[in-house]
Design goal:
297 residues; 14 strands; elongated
Amino acid sequence: MQRLEDLQAFVAVAEKGSLTAAARQLGRSLQSVSRSLSALESELGVELIARTTRRSVATEAGLVFHRRVGAALSEIEAAKREALNRHAEPSGLLRITTSTGLAPIHIVPAVRAFLELHPKVDVELDMSDGYVDLVDRGFDLGIRTGELPDSSLKARRLANFRRVVFAAPGYFARRGRPEAPEDLAQHECIVRTAAQEGAAWSFLVDGRPVVVKVAGRFRASGSPATIEAAVEGLGIANAPLWQVLSLVDSGAVELVLEPFEPPRLPMHAVWPATRLLPAKTQLFIEFLAARLKKERF
């Protein structure tokens, strides 16, 4: 602890430019700060702060030392705050934003179980398939699928999910099953117009990414409609496995082209990098991550 106080005294003096200002910031006496600084310089064998009657300025060696030590002390303080945060009982409003497809299948059940464990927490869930600015809208947390664009947000990967191609057994009975991605040109394909991939579906063929253009007589903007259209036998659709898993298990739809599936896509929890995570947010991220590890994606 004494060594930590010596380092804190040096950083404060280097940043404030004055032993008096550093002592005031640290809530210590001027003599105590001076002793800490002298002890540190004596141990290192180098002058870190050039002192005059009016100013205290970091030397060249002091500037180099400050770059490393200042960052280390910031991490120590963050770790202390996080430890205290984890010890506190979570409470207050947790505002989460996620997609309309993900919310009912995975997020709402997780929220229900989380609220049972933490009675002092309230949750407000926003569902949107468009881009949502967490900071501007005041959200504590976002749950997003797909690759993340470069941003100032911090993120934790929660799961990796498959994108699958499927249709109703009745459709395959009438039209046959595609054996390779290029066979889709001979089939009715259901296009989700609002999706990024749209009518260009991605596959892996012999380890290489291949994009296949698809078309059909039915299109829709939302995944619920395209999935239901596939169940009704209107054609072959494309969606994340988690959206259609219950339909696959019940036999309402069947998967095809599984050997050609593209690389799995990530699901992330994201939050503003400028915020120290409150206990309610940190605990929910860990709770959700643990639940999703047990799910089939």
